[in-house]
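Q: Make up one entry.
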Amino acid sequence: MGSNDIDRISYFSDSVINEFAPPERFTFPFYYEPHPLTKIAAAALQRFLETQTDIDHNFGLTADMEGYIVGKMFGVLVVRDREGKLGYLSAFSGKLAGTNDHPNFVPPVFDMLVESSFFLQGQDIIDTINDEVENILGNENYNQLKTDLAQLSTQSELELADFKKQLKVNKETRKQIRDEQMNSLDVEQYAVIEADLAKQSHYDRHRLRVLKEKWKLCLDDIRSKLAPLEARIEFLKNDRKERSAALQVQLFQQYAFLNKAGKSKSLYDIFSPTVFGVPPAGAGECATPKLLQFAFAHGYEPIAMAEFWWGASPKSDIRKHKQFYPACTGKCKPILAHMLEGLPVDENPMLLPAGDSVKLEIVFEDEHLLVVNKPAGLRSVPGVDIHESVYSRLVALLVNVEPLLVHRLDMGTSGLLVVAKSAAVHKHIQRQFLNHTIRKRYTALLSKIIGPGEGEIDLPLTADLFNRPRQLVCFTTGKKSVTRYKVIERKGGVTKVHFWPLTGRTHQLRMHSAHELGLNAPIVGDDLYGTAAERMYLHAAYLEFVHPKTKERLCFEVKEDF
């Protein structure tokens, strides 16, 4: 393909078009099964990536390649052109081989790296400011003055502290003389002694003032030499901050996104009403917004999309080579809400009601609490967009009782949940969870055969703020997360394991299963960290705790149905 915009579309063969009918509605970008046409387009793009030699980018797929390893998210968009022909567009997220525009892919929404652009000109000014700041900070005279000031400040503090200690000793000595002489001398004799002691006191105070003034003059002399340099640094930093902020706002305004109706909206306007307030770093650089922008700008009708990961997995996140993933929520969701306006889009399957076929089984109930067996596909508590949940079903079932869920299970996880019928019972059982006296065991089906028969996984987790509800492994800010596991069965390319979570972090078992530093085997059906299936094969099979009222130790077990 050439570098002209018209050449950035690839067309399907007649045999492909005859075999696979386009979908009636556009893909819901945040939860989808790739349409056959997007799979064909993605396979063609992957063949190109495997055989091309022009893009010098280290994806981490070959051991001998130099440079920092950076895997990439790639996207394909099936479109219908102005003549009604079906084809597809390709894109990558961010930069590829140090640039953001390659002839085989759609261009960026705004190319900040084009020569003589306002962004590069503004960045050059900021770089010049950075250079001047660095020159001052590296100046020998400046650093000697800083060193002298620090050393002399310390020396003055020590000398003054020692002198004050001596003055305190002198004061105590004078007090002792007064006490001794008061009763042994007559009034006139004592008055002479007292006058002399008063002179000594005044002299001590005078000497302290002189010492303080000496050090003040010395330190002020150094500070006066430092002041213009410090003032220049402060001015440069403020100037840099203001220029950076203005450049960022100008940049946000240049990122203008189209929708089906041709309505344009800037990145700044898109994110101003969100919780972020301003666009997060990299917003607008992801594959799907770039693909839709190109399609709308050239009169193409978007039909379906898909994104896949290409390269080694990052250390913090879970990304598997060639695997399809949804668009990110933090950066892309606000943008795509605008871009997909007016376009028929698939329903979010996560918002579809569970239905009567998804039964909630009550395993135990007394006047204080319930234990239920939550089915996969039912939320624990109501969400923003869907009400049906364990909570809503219990509200409808219980009479004059407010169900209080002590803990939760992910929507895709089945198994045992304990529900309190009063605040006191809820508090008592919650304390058992916090004190780790509750015993829990999960059963999971992992997507491949794993080697070790048992062990412990210790990977700290933190929330992915720009892609909720996904979690990340982070050894600096992550919270301690520990899971014990034991293999139960290996067959048919999958492994059944028991999990004992020793901590209770969000998505802990799912992350510890899928991450390459964990078991490196996503749970079967895990749509976030693996591949979607008819359900997620994770089941809370065993639960043991102390009854808040009877003090009896209750044990419950519901075997998995897989």
In short: The chain has three domains: 5-110+259-346, 135-251, 351-557. DSSP finds eleven helices and 19 strands in the chain. Residues 135-251 form one domain.
